[in-house]
Amino acid sequence: MRKMILVLMAALLVAGAAWANTGAPAKAPCTADLGMVSTLVRLNLTDAQKRDLAKVLKAHRSEFREALKEMRAARGQLRQAMEAEAPQSGKVSAACKLNAAAGERLALLLAQIKPQLRVVLSDKQKALWDHGRQEFLAGLSQRIDARRGLFSQWIDDHAK
Predict the structure, then answer these.
(1) Whether 65 contacts 33, CB under 8 Å
(2) Three-state DSSP class for 21?
(3) Measuring CA to CA, how many Å separate 157 from each of 9, 15, 76, 153?
């Protein structure tokens, strides 16, 4: 277990160094809120639908923000445990469990909210929503694959 954690940490450090050398910004702005707004605009909602969706979102806003805050904190603890000078498998494991619990809370909340939003939409709007989600996931997959390719290329270039 300890050896696996050390190998994972080394890979993460190399990945960070590779990405740092690509000239990309250290931190990209979060576009999740912009994505949601553009999705809502694309759906061409009626005023009644806008009101109903806004009520659902407002009802869960504080709970969702708290879940996101918890998730960020858990990820920060995991990152800190993994990046320690002398990582301890117990601390990394405990941080993983906190991260998983926070992720589960967020996933359950999203699973609870999504049906409440979709019930307001027409079939055509649901299809547009689903199509937009599929496009987002495809783009995300392409970005991940491109980064993996850069990382793999970096390894091949420097492991000679």
Answers:
(1) no
(2) coil
(3) 20, 14, 31, 6
| The length of the chain, given as a count of residues | 160
CA 33 – CA 4 distance, rounded (Å): 36
Nearest to 54 by CA among 113, 104, 110: 113
Which amino acid is it at 79? R
Whole-structure pTM value:
0.65
Measured CA to CA in angstroms, residue 154 lies from 29, 137, 159 at distances of: 25, 26, 8
In angstroms, what is the C-alpha Rg of the chain?
20
Q: In the numeric block, which tokens belong to residue 86?
A: 């002398």
- Which token pair is 128? 């547009």
Is the separation of the CB atoms in 139 and 101 below 8 Å? no
* 69 and 48 Cβ atoms separated by less than 8 Å: no
77-125 tens-digit pLDDT: 999 999 999 989 999 999 999 999 999 999 999 999 999 999 999 999 9
